[in-house]
Specification:
four-stranded antiparallel β-sheet; 4 helices
């Protein structure tokens, strides 16, 4: 009887060890997806588009005038080239990140929002008449955590407090969206970093 009990104990021990190793391997896989840093900058499209449309209207108006001269034609063409270059720079040129995803948390201009303080998040793409105007990122903080000042213009980011629960949310805004990724990809990357932080803490608890 003791032999059967010993055999069962050994089997359960081996199964438990195998499950532990499997869980650790999965935690390490999740943790690997949230390493390094990802800069998130706004990808401006609407403003350059409006500038381009206004410039095109002025150029068309100038070129269709009856008293058009060679000097005015050359000047108009030079201005149109300058406007096109400016719009291209607005759209494709380098932009400072609005916030950065790091292993420690979400780093904004003057603040770090630790992953441990973030309970949930949401990414919403807002549009008017089918045209995307801005993308909102809302980070819901745990009870008792007061986020630091972000150092951003209120149109780009702000902290708000729920009077009923006392908990804070941090709202970050990108006009029109994140450069180099759509809203789904941005939500995925935030989720990966958040999950990686939880996995990192669990691996540390397990001593793995």
């Amino acid at each position: 009887m003791s032999g059967i009990a010993s055999s069962l104990e050994q089997e359960f021990a081996e199964r438990s060890q195998a499950e532990r190793e499997s869980n650790i391997a999965e935690l390490k896989r999740i943790e690997s997806n949230g390493r390094g840093r990802v800069d998130v900058a706004a990808h401006a499209i609407v403003m350059p588009g409006l500038v381009g449309l206004i410039a095109c209207g002025l150029i068309y108006s100038t070129l269709t005038r009856h008293d058009l001269t060679a000097t005015r034609t050359v000047t108009t063409l030079l201005i149109s080239a300058a406007v096109a270059a400016l719009c291209a720079w607005f759209i494709f040129g380098p932009r400072k990140p609005r916030f950065t995803l790091t292993e420690e948390g979400v780093r904004v201009k003057n603040a770090l929002l630790p992953w441990g303080s973030i309970e949930d998040y949401g990414v919403t793409e807002n549009s008017t008449n089918g045209i995307t105007t801005h993308t909102s990122i809302v980070l819901q903080h745990a009870a008792g955590f007061t986020p630091p000042e972000l150092g951003l213009n209120i149109a780009f980011g702000a902290n708000t407090r729920n009077r009923q629960t006392g908990q804070y949310d941090t709202r970050l805004t990108l006009h029109v969206g994140a450069k180099g990724m759509n809203s789904d990809k941005l939500a995925q990357r935030i989720g990966e970093f958040l999950a990686a932080a939880h996995a990192r803490a669990e691996l540390e608890r397990l001593g793995a």
